[in-house]
What we know:
heterodimer, A: mainly beta, three-stranded antiparallel sheet, 9 strands, B: mainly beta, seven-stranded mixed sheet, 50% strand
Amino acid sequence: QSALTQPPSASGSPGQSVTISCTGTSSDVGGYNYVSWYQQHPGKAPKLMIYEVTKRPSGVLDRFSGSKSGNTASLTVSGLQAEDEADYYCSSYGGSNNYVVFGGGTKLTVL
Amino acid sequence: EVQLVETGGGLIQPGGSLRLSCAASGFIVSDNYMSWVRQAPGKGLEWVSVIYRGGSTYYADSVKGRFTISRDNSKNTLSLQMNSLRAEDTAVYYCARDMTTVDEYWGQGTLVTVSS
C-alpha cells in the first residue's frame, strides 16, 4: 500500500497559476478515473476540491482544475489568492481491498 | 443536513484498546461506503478501513488484525475498535462517507493519543 508521490512544496505569487503533481501506478491513478484532491487548512478537516479526476463539487471555484495523464494526476490552481495557501492531498481508488491511497501532501505557499 | 460526529478519542497507553464512534445524521450509514481515515500530528492522510454497503470490510496493512470496523444500523453509527494500540497510531481519526465520489463527506475528527 504505497503512497502516491507529491512534491512536498509548491509556491506562486498572487494571480499566478501553480500545478501540483501526483504520481501513482497502474494499480491506482493509472487504472481508475477516481482521483480526488483535497485542500486542508491548519486544524481543519480536509475539503474535497476535485473528484473523478476533473470534476468540481458544488461550491468549489473554477480556479481549481484537475487532469490526468497515465499514472500522474495534476491539480492546477489558477489566479492564486492568499486563501489558497494550504496543504493539498491527492488520493486515488486502489481497488476493493486497498480502497483509497493518498499522496504525501503538498504545502502550497502564496508568496 | 448531512453530519458526521466522531467521538471516543483520548489518551491511551500502548497496548491498550479504544473504540471510536461516528454518529451520522441526514443519511443512512448502511446505504453508503463508510471509511476511517487518520492523520498523525504534522503528517499526511492515511486511509485506515472501509465497510461497503454489503458489509465487506477492508483494512490498511498497518492496522490489519488490530482494528475492526463495524456499523450499528439501529443507531446509524460507524465504529472503529482499536486494539493493541501503538505510539504510531497517534492521530486524528476521521470518518468519511462515500470517498472518491461527489457525495463524499467527512467529520471533524477525534484525536487519539497513544502514550505512557
